[in-house]
Amino acid sequence: MLNVGINGFGRIGRAIFRINLKNNVFNVVAINDTNPSNENLCYMLKYDSTYGILDAEIDNEKDFININNCSIRTFHEKNISKVPWEKHEVDVVIDASGVYENLNFKDKLKDKGIIHQIVTNTPDSENIDKYVILGVNEKNVFEDSNFLISSGICDANAVAPVLNILNTEYEIEHGFLTTLHPWLSYQNLLDGPSRSFAYPGTIIENFALGRSSINAMIPKTTSAIRASEKVLKYLENKFQSLSFRVPTAIVSTADISVKLKKNTTKDEIVELFNNMVLNQKLNIIKNNYEPLVSTDFIGSEYSAIIDQRWTQFNDSNYLKLILWYDNEWAYGSRVVDLVNILSSQYNE
Questions:
Q1: CATH code of 83's domain
Q2: N or C: which terminal CB in the chain sees fewer CB atoms within 10 Å?
Q3: HSE (side-chain half, CA atoms, 13 Å) at 132
Q4: Any residues with CB less than 8 A from the CB of 20 and at least 6 apart, and which?
Q5: Would residue 42 show up in a list of annotated catalytic residues for this protein?
Q6: pTM of the predicted model, to two decimals?
Q7: Which of 136, 154, 284, 323 is catalytic?
Q8: How far apart are CA 240 and CA 124, in angstroms?
């Protein structure tokens, strides 16, 4: 079992921790977060407004979080390379901070004996050795050169596997994507500066992102297609996309419209995804046929839940699909799966 250090103990970092606590895939031996209060870190891990109270014994002491009689060393460094990961025999660092500057320290992490660094976003950076979206291209992730691995973003983890299945079977001519994404922690309750999370101290040019997140739907660009193109090169220049930040706390949806090259029918498409679900090894795709709403999918581990009630197809070979995905829990589940896949190499 690999030893893991988590850098950034925010929404995604804590979701990954909770998922691993449930599934026992790896050992979390160190946590780094700029929040200087261990007591506050314990409180946020224990009490979560989305996922409820964690069923575990948690307390803190100086430089440690104790959970179920297991002590985890904590640090509060801004620079990921300043954390002494090597003293705790960390094999893999999951960087869930979202701060792009951390990509510049991969060589220093290598020198500390780290085997892999996983970043939970999809930056355009020459430092990234491999972009991985499970359900698309997880094969050959074991190569020694793949030190710094991007696990994509929640939207791409939902959209890319679905598009890959469609393209393999029917070939996609072009398409359109609209995502509805819940507010994020860097947004404001009341109107204020449009602060960047990835680049602390800078302002996002889309000033609308500084507006009150609880009172409006905020249009913005989305990196879902750009992130998908990292693993599906054939999507380049085929899609138009946009997103709305919506005043909800959790669960995203994606509205996909694609023109297919090969003739088919709605029934054949539904059957295609039904068969895919039966044969998949990971919880990537699920089909839904019930009259559900977004909150019904809170805590779902699936990358994409296709709401087949809204699947539409016309004589011009245009297909519309609606996907649901818990943008924290499903994405965190894929990161845990990725570490499990990496772990299998070293356990052989």
A1: 3.40.50.720
A2: C
A3: 28
A4: 4, 26, 28, 336
A5: no
A6: 0.95
A7: 154
A8: 19
